[in-house]
Design goal:
Layout lengths: L2 H15 L5 H12 L7 H17 L1 H12 L3 H28 L6 H21 L10 H13 L7 H11 L4 H22 L1 H11 L1 H27 L6 H18 L6
Helix pairs in contact: 1-2, 1-3, 1-11, 2-6, 3-9, 3-10, 3-11, 4-5, 5-7, 5-9, 6-8, 6-12, 7-8, 8-9
Length: about 270
Amino acid sequence: MTLLEAVILGFVQGITEFLPVSSSGHLVLGQALFGIELPGVAFEVTVHLATLCAVCWEFRARLASLVRGAWSRDRRSLAYIGLLAVATLPAAAVGAGLGDALEPAFERPVIAAAMLLLTGVLVWSIRYFSRRATRGRPTLAGAVGIGLAQALAILPGISRSGSTVAAATAAGVDPRRAAEFSFLLSIPAIAGAAVLQAPALGEAGAVLGSVPLGAAFLTAALSGVLAIRIFLRMLELRVFHRFAWYCWIAGGAYLAAAALWPALRG
């Protein structure tokens, strides 16, 4: 992997991690188009750590508030943290129990392209769910639903942010609060993935080199901050559902190309 390729894939990861267009799906498709062979999912975990830094930075005030609330045993803060914990469990269970079984899906770009079409449907649904969403936070049942949506997003091509915000608004949570819950929920998800894949990171550094990995990390962190701000701004402008068109066009275009050129099917 060259430095330029590392920067490009880092940017793709950062800008798509929080936008509802599936970062994992774009990495799989990007690898297929560039012809890059990566050592497992180690590179993806590296750039995911960068986006973890991005979300912690953008929501540092909210995180500090939750930490202070937990320290002082504030019931509202503890309840919110409890909902985040409940929503984390489904993805943690699927990742720990089925992680190895799902890994081959990351080598099939046509799967990622097909799942992008489903992501488009989920993103488009937010337009309708948000009209009646008024809650400030999900109920316990809503948190379970959001957690199941996050577990589904382990598949490449399913947007974690898109699916969890769709599930939250379907549970009646205000779109802005749904986005906040989704971003905070990404912290244990990304950190957990990094812990599970930690042994592979050393191998990735040896194979790819520390300079390309470092460049990808920095690019992903900066573009991740930008993506969060775009995400929230488009929610405010009520044009968030337009991301669905991108998902449909990107997924459909790749599937059409794969039908013409079998080498793209994976």
